[in-house]
Specification:
elongated; single chain; mainly alpha
C-alpha cells in the first residue's frame, strides 16, 4: 500500500496552544501579564506615564510572542538574528552571474 497523504499547511498549529503559542511562550506571556497586574495593584497610577510604566511588561511580552511570517514569533526571530550575527558568523561568497570577473572577491 502506498500512503501518500497531502498534509494541510496548518497541521503544525494543532500542537500549539490557541493555535500560535508554545508552552514557553504561554509561560512568558503569563509572567509578563502577571507582573503588570502586580504593578497595577502595588502602585497607584495617578498619571499617564505611571500607567504606561505599569503596563510596559505586558507590552514587551506581547511583542515577543506575537506571531510573524516565516518565523514562529518575534522571540524566535530575535534569537535567530542574534545567532546569525554574533554566534555563528558566516561569510557567504557571492560571485553572481558574470562571465568575466574584473576583480577578485576572495579577500
Amino acid at each position: 500500500m502506498d500512503y501518500n497523504y497531502l498534509v494541510p499547511a496548518n497541521s503544525k498549529k494543532q500542537g500549539l496552544i490557541f493555535g500560535f503559542l508554545m508552552p514557553i511562550d504561554l509561560t512568558i506571556l503569563s509572567i509578563g501579564v502577571g507582573v503588570s497586574f502586580l504593578l497595577f495593584m502595588i502602585f497607584r497610577s495617578t498619571s499617564l506615564v505611571m500607567s504606561l510604566l505599569e503596563v510596559f511588561p505586558a507590552f514587551v511580552v506581547a511583542f515577543l510572542v506575537f506571531p510573524i511570517p516565516n518565523y514562529h514569533n518575534s522571540r524566535i526571530f530575535i534569537r535567530e538574528m542574534y545567532r546569525f550575527y554574533f554566534v555563528n558568523r558566516r561569510k557567504y561568497m557571492w560571485r553572481g552571474w558574470c562571465y568575466k570577473y574584473e576583480q577578485s572577491d576572495d579577500k
